[in-house]
Amino acid sequence: MKLRSFFIILAVSIFILLSGASSSLYWILGQSPLKLLPGGVLREPITAVFIPKQAPVMISLLVNPDRLESLAQYITFPQNRGRSHREFLSLEKQLLSKTGLDYQTQIRPWLGEEITLAVTSLDFDRNPDNGVQPGYLLAVTTKDRELAKVFLQSSYSKDAISGTSDLIFESYKGVNLIYQRHRDNLVNTRLSATAILDNLVLFANDPKILRDAINNVQVRTLNLKNSSNYQEALKTITKPRIGIVYANFPALSAWLGRLPIPEIPEITQTLTVAFSVKSKGLVAQTALIGGAEQGEEPPALSKPVGALAYVPVNSILTAAGTNLNQLWSQIETGLANESPLQQLLNRILVSIQEPLGLDFSEKVFPSIQGEFSLALIPRLDRSEPDGIFVAKKVPDVNFSEWVENFDKLAQEQGYSVGNLPLLNNTVTVWTKLNTATGNKGNLTSLEARVSGVHADVNDYVIFATSVEAMSQALSTPDITLIRSKKLQQAVEALSSENDGYFYVDWSQGKKLLERKLPIVKVVELSIKPLLNNLQSFTISSQGKENGVRRATIFLNLGVR
Fold first, then answer.
1. E strands along 216-347, which residues?
2. What pLDDT is stored for residue 230 in this prediction?
3. How many other CB atoms are there within 10 angstroms of residue 159's CB atom?
4. How far apart are CA 373 and CA 322, in angstroms?
5. Exposure pattern of 231-264 as b/e (b: 16+ CB <10 Å)?
6. Which residues, other chains included, contact 430 with Cβ-Cβ below 8 Å and sequence gap of 6+?
C-alpha cells in the first residue's frame, strides 16, 4: 500500500470511528466507558510535541478505538448492532489489508488512548532527483510497552526474511531508532522507521522524520504544541473532545496537489477542529486563524432568526442570519483571496447573479441589514428546486423603492408584472407568456411562465421562484423549519449566541448538491461510510475572539 493512500485511509477511518460512536450517545452515556466524559476528554494531544509547527495537517484521536466501538454497539435499536460491528470490521480490513497485520491480535493488546498521524513535511529530503517526497509520522500511546516491543520485533523479523532490506539500529539523542535500509536504494514508501519513547511509539517513512520529531520535543519553538496559533485556537475550544484536526491551509493545499514547498513558507491561515460526541450526532468546534482583519467580533444573535418562520419544514438547504451586507464584507476581507473557501463562495455567487444580470454585492446585499433567510425547497414536478428568500425590513432602507427596482428589472427582461391574491395576501408575480405545441403537433396553447413572486408580510419581504413556493411560505406557520424537530436537534448542539445557521438536509439534498457542486461528490467518495449515516448538517458561526474566528458544525447521524 502506498503511504499516501495509507494516510488518507487512516484519516478517514478516524473520522468514521468518531461518527460511529456518536450515533446513539443520548442512550449510551450512562452505560458506556465514556459515562463520566460529557462528550469526550478535556485535554489536547500529547503527541503534538513531535509535530513541526509548519506541518500541513495533523489528525489526532484522543480515545481508544475499542471504547468507540463499544459505544456503537449500544445503539438504540438492536437490529442495527450487527451493521455497526460490520462497519468497524470493514474499517480494520481496509486499513490493514495490505500490511499483513491483524488488529485484534497484534495491535489491540498494546494500543493506548491516543492515535495521531500527520504530514510533517512536503518534501523531507529536498532532493530534486526523486521528486516530492512528503514526510509522514504516526504517533500512538501504548498501554503495554513490552507488548509494543514484541509487535515491532515480530514485524521486522518478517521483513528481514524477505531479504530486500537491512535492519539498522541507531541511537539518536538517547532514543533508539530502528529502520529498514532498502538494498535497491529506492525511496521508502512504508512506515518502516520506528522508535519507542516511554509510553509512546513512533512510526515514520524515513529515519529523518524520527530525528526531526525528537528535535521538535527538545526545542520547544519547533513543535506544534507550543505554536502560538495552535494554542490560541485551543483556548477558544473549551468543550470536551474525542478528536482534534489541525490544518495549515497553504501547506495542506500543496500536499493535496502533490506540490513542492510553497514559495512563502509562513503560515497564513490555519484551522483547528475539535470533535465531540452529542445526542444523535457529532459536533465539530472550529477555530480559524488568518485573514485580512484581526480583533473582536461578538456574535450578532442570541436567539433563532425570525425569518425562518417563513421557511417550509421540507427545506433542502437553508441559510439564515442578520445583516447580509456586513456578512459578505467579512467573508471578502476575512478570507485570503487564495483561500479555497473564498473561491468556492465566489463561484456560487457568480452562478446565481449572472443569469439575472445583477451584481448582488451592489444591488442586493447593501439593503439586507436585518434578519434574512434563504432556502431551497424540493418540487415534485422537476429536479430543480424552488427558492425562497426572506428579508426583515429595517428603518434605514426604503424597501418599497427597493422592491420596485426589481419589478422594473423584470419588465426590462420581458416579464409582465401583476398582482395576484394568495392566502389572504396580495402577491406580485413576474410572468412571461409562451406558446406550447401539443404532442401531436396540431394544438397550440398559451402558457404563463412564472419567474418570480414577492410579497410584503408583516415586517418581512418574501421572494420566491414560484407561486407554489410562496404558498408554502405563507401557509405553514405551524410546520415551518424553525419549529421542526430536526432543526431543534441541531440548534441544541450549537451555541445560542451565533451569527446564524447554514442547514443542509443531506437525506433530501444529496443529489442536488452533487449535481451543482462536483467537489461534493469527490468528498462523498472519500468519506462514504460516514455519509451513509448522515441525516443533516448545520454550520453556525460565533464571531471572532482574539483574532480567532469560531464556528460549530453539527452532524446529525441519528435515525429520525
1. 243-248, 269-278, 281-290, 317-322
2. 93
3. 15
4. 9
5. ebbbebbeebbbbbbbbbbbbbbbbeeeeeeeee
6. 407, 410, 415, 416, 417, 450, 451, 452, 453
3-state secondary structure of 450: strand
CA 553 from chain center: how many Å? Answer: 7
* DSSP code string of 126-191: --GGG----EEEEEEEES-HHHHHHHHHHHHHHHHHHTSEEEEEEEETTEEEEEEEETT-PPP-S-
The length of the chain, given as a count of residues: 560
118, three cell numbers: 500527520
> Do 291 and 551 meet the contact criterion of CB atoms below 8 Å apart?
no
Query: Residue 138 and residue 51: Cα distance in Å, rounded?
Result: 10
Judged against a pLDDT cut of 60, whether residue 339 lies above it is answered with: no
pLDDT in tens, 270-318: 899 999 877 677 889 999 887 655 678 888 888 888 899 999 988 888 8
Q: Model-level pTM greater than 0.90? A: no
Which amino acid is present at 68?
L
Amino acid identity of residue 430, one-letter, is W
Residue among 41, 77, 52, 30 at smallest CA distance from 265: 52
